[in-house]
Specification:
Chain lengths: ~375, ~375
């Protein structure tokens, strides 16, 4: 498909699929096991409907918002996705430039093929650093300190991955990072090699390094070694929301890791309200998982999210056209979100309310009216 | 498909389908009539979602559990499926070896192509004997006594088959046991031949032998002739749960006979909670029907089952690769179940609770909050 004719973010996936080696595309695209949650992350958005308000002056629609004190152009930000140089030679640097040009936030993956320093060298930008807590706490402390020094503004701590989820394509493909690439943040650190084994090479690597014992006390430890705000990424229950807030986290990202961890968890848009209610306005709540349209972002905000993160579409844009592709992805989402706000009758993000959407539960609880009416 | 590359239990079905004669595959695979319940046994699992707890130390996940006093490696056991030598020359003996190597429980079908003595001769293992009550009570008594002497630990009494369900493929295929095989437990007993008639040959045989008059008094009779604990297999209502417990049964297997009896009964995972609530922890409740993933077992346990039985996947593993195939099927389920426990945040089977899942009813009952909240 001629990319100048692309009219929505999903169309980039077809382009990317044709360009990328199967092993790479499969790694990016896969969910865990039956990939039910992968589909559900999209389907659940479909079950939420808008209640647009009409005859409102929408001459000026302002999509800007503030996240952890940073003013950004729109409540649509970039999620951490690993190993972006598999998609395009410029990898995370291309993404960083595109995101900065849109004045929104980029989250850099711990498993990036570019280091925090390289990404920071691209120029000014608001960046978060996604962190896995490894068994070697020194490694973690070093990473965090480097992220701070490189000007990153917050930590997104992944809490849903004590073990890697079962992505069957990666197992069948014996997925391993292409040999000319490396997890740049770990260069020079002794962490073991990713070996080609019976299962996916990444799984072997992770199995060796990810700390399965990670628990709430480690969040407290993390807070003792950094003053950066910590977002807890991967909370989807009210119970864990309360614990996260008690622990002093700065925010929650409702996430199911792109449906790559435990299959048959709810879509993040389905889990969002439970977390928002439990948070009770004490910390901002964000969402990732399945965001493909400006309308998805509007739904998430109406249900209480402060913002959303987009994952795979950035990879598809990157694979298709590098920095220009990522820019286009963000532009499409920005244009769609602006349009959706206007058509819903909101001119500022703060004007988006719960009444702008109707959930499936509300729809199902609409009982028939007992009042008869005359049709004119 | 190269069986090295099999990454889930369902993939063994494709391999088996290619290897087996149509009549045999159809016999194993079929449900009754429209096969609605057959699909529903799978679909209903999809409607149950997880509520995983994060930041819990899952270094050591222990999948072991105790069933009727027997400690086993995981709450996933093997259901009775008939005539396993149609799948593979080693039939039930291969299954018995594979199950014993996994230290879990095998249920031997009354309609096995290997006798209880042959199965016991394979070596030590925890085995249950599935029983149909025949018109000739002497036959039943002999079978039960032989099962006891062969070291079987419990009876699984099938109560949903006063008449064979209408499996249309078997009728069209004029299903009959291949002539070189025999229902080994009935060798030497005068039970009539399976004849090729207008309907499936098996139906004729069963019509002649199964006692349509079977009722609760017969359960009491059965208890007088054996001290083996009796599990009642095929209960799906609260009313029958109460009656079974009053009758002194040792446990209930919520089962719809692999969707082969009455079509349009609920999926067993849907019926489970009603039975669990009625049982009120007086006896253990088990489930069979549609278990294909470790996540299915976790859902059943969260809803109150003590364990689950797996039927068809064992046949597919057996048909594909004999004992090695059955071993692999059990290994896949064991690994998936272990992973699911870890990702859900439980380290022992006893830590699995109702709060780890969300049923469709709970999802639909989430009504909109009347409290407004501020988005940060």
């Amino acid at each position: 498909m001629d990319t100048s004719m692309i009219t929505n973010v999903c169309e980039y996936e077809e382009v990317a699929k044709k360009k990328l080696p199967k092993m790479v595309y499969d790694y990016y695209a896969s969910g865990a096991e039956d990939q039910w949650t992968l589909q559900e992350n999209r389907h659940a958005f479909e079950r939420i409907r808008f209640r647009p308000r009409i005859l409102i002056d929408v001459t000026k629609v302002d999509t800007s918002t503030t996240v952890l004190g940073h003013k950004i152009s729109m409540p649509i930000m970039v999620a951490p996705t690993a190993m972006q140089r598999m998609a395009h030679p410029e990898g995370e640097l291309a993404t960083a430039r595109a995101v900065a040009s849109h004045n929104t936030i980029m989250t850099l993956s711990s498993w990036a093929t570019s280091s925090v320093e390289e990404v920071a060298s691209v120029g000014p930008g608001i960046r978060f650093f996604q962190l896995y807590v490894y068994k070697d706490r020194n490694v973690v402390a070093q990473l965090v300190r480097r992220a701070e020094r490189a000007g990153f503004s917050a930590i997104a701590l992944t809490v849903d991955t004590p073990i890697l989820g079962r992505r069957e394509a990666d197992i069948k493909n014996r997925f391993a990072l292409p040999p000319h690439l490396t997890l740049k943040n770990f260069e020079g650190l002794d962490l073991g090699q990713m070996e080609k084994t019976q299962d996916s090479g990444l799984a072997s690597y992770v199995a060796g390094q990810i700390d399965r014992s990670l628990s709430w006390k480690d969040v407290k430890w993390l807070q003792s070694i950094t003053s950066m705000p910590i977002l807890v990424k991967g909370v989807i229950t009210a119970e864990d929301t309360h614990l996260a807030i008690q622990c002093g986290c700065a925010g929650i990202i409702v996430s199911n890791h792109g449906a790559r961890q435990l299959d048959y968890v709810p879509a993040t848009i389905s889990a969002l309200e439970e977390v928002v209610k439990a948070a009770g306005g004490r910390v901002p709540v964000f969402l990732d998982g399945g965001v493909r349209r400006g309308t998805d972002a509007l739904k998430a905000l109406a249900l209480g999210a402060t913002g959303v993160f987009v994952g795979r579409p950035v990879l598809w844009g990157l694979a298709s056209e590098g920095e220009a592709g990522v820019k286009k992805i963000l532009q499409l989402l920005r244009d769609e979100f602006t349009l959706a706000m206007a058509l819903a009758g909101a001119t500022k993000v703060s004007e988006i309310t719960r009444a702008h959407v109707q959930t499936e539960q509300e729809r199902m609880s609409q009982l028939p009216s007992t009042i008869t009416y005359s049709r004119l």
